[in-house]
Amino acid sequence: MAGIDLAATSPRTTLDVVGRSPATRRRLSRAALYVALGVIAVVMVVPFVWMVLTSLKTPADIAASPPTFLPTEWAWGNYADALAAAPFLTYARNSLIIAVSHTTINLVVASMAGYALARLRFRGSELVFLGFVAALMIPTYTKIIPEFLIVRFMPLFGGNDILGQGGTGWLDTWWALIVPGAVTPFAVFLFRQFYLDLPVELEEAARLDGVSELGIWARIMTPLVKPAFITVALLTFESSWNNFLWPLLVTRTDSMRVIQVGLSVFRTENDTQWAFLMAGTTLATVPMVALFLLGQKYFVRGFANAGIK
Amino acid sequence: MAVVSAPRDVSAPPVVPTRSPAPRRRRAGAARRRAGMLMVAPAFLHALIWIGIPVIAAFVLSFTHYDVLTQPRFNGIQNYVDALTDPVFRRGMLNTLVYAFFTVPVAMGIALLIALMLDTQLRARALFRTAVFIPQVTATIAVALVWLWIYDPRNGLLNAVLGFFGIPAQNWLSSTTWAMPSVIVVGIWQGIGLKMLIYLAALQSLPKDVYEAASVDGASKTRQFFSITLPLLKPATFFVFVTSVISAFQAFDLIYILTDGGPANTTTMMTYEIYKSAFREFRVGYACAQSIILFVFLLLLTLANRRLNGGDSGRH
């Protein structure tokens, strides 16, 4: 099993190919490694390439069997046509508004909480922290039904009376789309870890200078954990933009739909419009991929940090 | 300069600010504690309303008959009995376990293998890492739509590629045999990047001198892998396992787009049954019971892994 051997031979070693000189063996194993990784890379990337190529194909190309890899004629007009067929730009705008709101709120509220839990211990703060850790482990599906009921029966909204009866509450409003997912326990957890590592002296010095506790957090300590902010911002934005089930549940009208829900609806309503669907999917994917390429280091560190801590 | 301040030193316990008992400081301490409480309050209240109360509500409602329109009515453990005897929900549990088996332990093995391949002096490593990770940051809906098109029986890429090698075309997603494997492939494809990345980060932080000592002692590479590398990777394995299990048990978007749980319930999942019960059939109490069962599954798996792996005590 060459694969296992390859795995077992960590750094600086070679596959055990019998009867060759070490140099040849090294070259061979290196080649095998590159071939294996190349195949994996192709499998990972081809679906995206296929998505973009499909979005640029004419109906004739799409119906061709077997399909041609490249479009015979590059149908750049597909994008304009797709936007005319469904309000993808409205969907994307809605997603953007929600993702930006989630990110902003999460950064402020979660960093404040993470800071307090790390540096301003009070009676019960350990318990509160444990509560956040426990909240981390709650599956979405265990809380989503009551969350929906809370939104649905939100008193005095959407025609509801004080008991939450008679109307639709927060359903189909920005409130429902933004408020419930605005702060994540994961962000609180991550911020706490980052603030814990800062030196006490800074805080003490600022306190002697008469800076308020809020000021110490905002002006002294926070600039020192910029990486945490970038990490949380990217992760929050990404998960908000990619969220599907919650916006599916709480929106009814087309103008309130987010991009992921819009795509899924477009697919059910126009089953065979693959070019348009792939154009829409490309529009939904490109911002995330761009964001990832720009902030790769922070994405990676965010995930890996959570893993090592 | 701020960039380097990410926590690196994991072994050192967090430094708790030592409070000097000087009486002059006591008032300042009280102000600090009050500030602490006020600063935690917004996040705490948010978590209470949108996580704490919902979890308790789900638990309470799971013992009731509730259809949103009329008041909930207590019916004991009836919902649990119904869920555990319902052939479709049982199918969902089985499917979830099968899906989790392939997208967690199996995928972790593949991820570790790729990570080991990358943990060498490789020229294109950064590029490769990016390629593997992109599906992770892409919306599952987008991923599912692309694969739906790849699996298309008539014009799909997969049948075309297989046809090139003389393999007959399949109705991937509408065949009771192939639907589940097809879904699993997409699940592995999307999740492999994160698993690999965590393993790679862990591999790169392994102490090199241990391997040198082992080589001097004449331990083979295979022996070194099983006696040194794997044990040292325990904390990473624990983390990857827990996060992957959580996401595998919550697979929903993929199913929603690719198969709608079909054909003949061969790809339905616990989450999908919860969704159908609550939002298509309005059996809210029943759906809550199903969601508590899902929670218990996750809890047991996490605890079992903690036991098996000896916990993650080494790093915490």
Word description of this protein:
The complex is a heterodimer of chains A (309) and B (316). Chain A has 309 residues and is mainly alpha-helical. Chain A has two domains: 2-79, no CATH class; 87-308, MetI-like fold. Helices cover 70% and strands 0% of the residues of chain A. Chain A is built from 16 helices and no strands. In chain A, helix 14 packs antiparallel against helix 15. Residues 1-17 of chain A have low confidence and may be disordered. Chain B is mainly alpha-helical and 316 residues long. Chain B has a domain at 94-308: MetI-like (MetI-like fold). Chain B is built from 13 helices and two strands; from the N terminus they run H-E-E-H-H-H-H-H-H-H-H-H-H-H-H. Chain B has helices at 26-61, 78-85, 87-118, 125-137, 140-150, 157-164, 179-204, 208-216, 221-232, 234-249, 253-258, 270-279, 284-308; strands spanning 64-65, 73-74. Chain B has a two-stranded antiparallel sheet with strand order 1-2. In chain B, a hairpin with a 7-residue loop joins strand 1 (64-65) and strand 2. The interface between A and B is large, with 122 and 125 residues.
What's the short story on this structure?
The complex is a heterodimer of chains A (309) and B (316). By secondary structure, chain A is mainly alpha-helical.
SSE series of chain B = HEEHHHHHHHHHHHH
- Mean pLDDT over the residues of chain A: 87
CATH superfamily of the largest domain in chain A: MetI-like
| CATH topology call of the largest domain in chain A | MetI-like fold
Task: Please indicate the percent range of residues of chain A in DSSP E strands (runs of 2 or more).
Answer: under 5%
The percent range for strand residues of chain B is: under 5%
Task: Record the SSE blueprint.
The complex is a heterodimer of chains A (309) and B (316).
Chain A: H1 2-8, H2 22-55, H3 59-63, H4 77-85, H5 88-119, H6 125-136, H7 140-152, H8 174-178, H9 185-196, H10 200-208, H11 213-221, H12 226-242, H13 245-250, H14 259-269, H15 274-294, H16 296-308
Helix pairs in contact in A: 2-15, 4-15, 5-9, 5-12, 5-14, 6-9, 9-12, 10-11, 12-16, 14-15
Chain B: H1 26-61, E1 64-65, E2 73-74, H2 78-85, H3 87-118, H4 125-137, H5 140-150, H6 157-164, H7 179-204, H8 208-216, H9 221-232, H10 234-249, H11 253-258, H12 270-279, H13 284-308
Antiparallel strand pairs in B: 1-2
